[in-house]
Amino acid sequence: MERKSSLEYNEKNHKYNPRHVAIIMDGNGRWANKKGKMRIFGHKEGFKAVKEAIRFSIINDLKILTLYAFSSENWNRPLFEIKSLMELFYYALESEIKNLKKYNIRLKVIGDITYFNKKLQKSIRNAEQITSNNNGLILNIAANYGGRWDIIQSIKKIICKVQKGILNINNIQEKTFSEYLSTSKLLPVDLVIRTGGEKRISNFLLWQIAYSELYFTDVLWPDFNHYVFQQAIDAFISRERRFGGCKKNEKQ
């Protein structure tokens, strides 16, 4: 049976399927180690899983897919692995730009890209510019990203506006703060998926996922496929999102 669009409203249980899904892609290194191979081999296989996740998102009409590709803490990894990851990132951008255009995907890289070499920065800006008018799936790649960094850079922007008299400090609300985050103007994150068996957030979208549903799976990222993605979606649909309220039909 063909699955209904993930944007379709379910009249029976009054629930929406997720519109914005964020994924912590964990387990590439362990996957490679289990096979007796170098960690970079796992990252290359993980790139295939990325394409699978994007394909699923398009088929199921998701609006936004945010992928945690490289955290601000990942610089602590061995130099060879970092160098290989940067090369893989550059290759992915250059080789997939045609597909991004073909499938109407708008690419946005969130994070402090100034740490990357000039060639990679140029490739990022080029891919973002080329896809800027696409109005299909929004694909966020979190690279050199950290939730604490995102909050701090937002605070700095707000302070600058206040000092210039552009923003009144008394008018700063949660919505105001959100407008200065790297995910400004995007729909809220409905569902966070983490692969690899770990059950933590790892400094990912700390502000944005305050009321997101969390789904953890033991599947290592290179083995992530549409079946696993569908399980996460089904788990989301089965939950009652209350946003701090009471359960429906619960006695007061």
UniProtKB/TrEMBL annotation:
Give residues annotated as binding substrate.
27-31, 39, 43, 71-73, 75, 77, 194, 200-202
Residues forming the catalytic site? D26, N74 (proton acceptor)
Please give the catalytic activity noted in the UniProt record: 8 isopentenyl diphosphate + (2E,6E)-farnesyl diphosphate = di-trans,octa-cis-undecaprenyl diphosphate + 8 diphosphate
The record's EC number reads 2.5.1.31
GO molecular function terms listed in the Swiss-Prot or TrEMBL record? ditrans,polycis-undecaprenyl-diphosphate synthase [(2E,6E)-farnesyl-diphosphate specific] activity; magnesium ion binding
One GO BP annotation of this record: cell wall organization
The entry's cellular-component GO terms read:
cytosol
Keywords (A to Z) from UniProt: Cell shape, Cell wall biogenesis/degradation, Magnesium, Metal-binding, Peptidoglycan synthesis, Transferase
Q: How is the cofactor bound?
A: Binds 2 magnesium ions per subunit.
User: Where is Mg(2+) bound in this sequence?
Assistant: D26, E213
- EC class of this enzyme? transferase
Q: Which cofactor does it need?
A: Mg(2+)
Which InterPro entries does this one have?
UPP_synth-like, UPP_synth-like_CS, UPP_synth-like_sf
Q: Spell out the Pfam families in the cross-references.
A: Prenyltransf
Q: How does it assemble?
A: Homodimer.
HAMAP family documented for this protein: ISPT (MF_01139)
Q: Which family does it belong to?
A: Belongs to the UPP synthase family.
> Its function?
Catalyzes the sequential condensation of isopentenyl diphosphate (IPP) with (2E,6E)-farnesyl diphosphate (E,E-FPP) to yield (2Z,6Z,10Z,14Z,18Z,22Z,26Z,30Z,34E,38E)-undecaprenyl diphosphate (di-trans,octa-cis-UPP). UPP is the precursor of glycosyl carrier lipid in the biosynthesis of bacterial cell wall polysaccharide components such as peptidoglycan and lipopolysaccharide.
Q: Which NCBIfam families match?
A: uppS
Q: List the protein's name.
A: Ditrans,polycis-undecaprenyl-diphosphate synthase ((2E,6E)-farnesyl-diphosphate specific)
Organism for this UniProt entry: Buchnera aphidicola
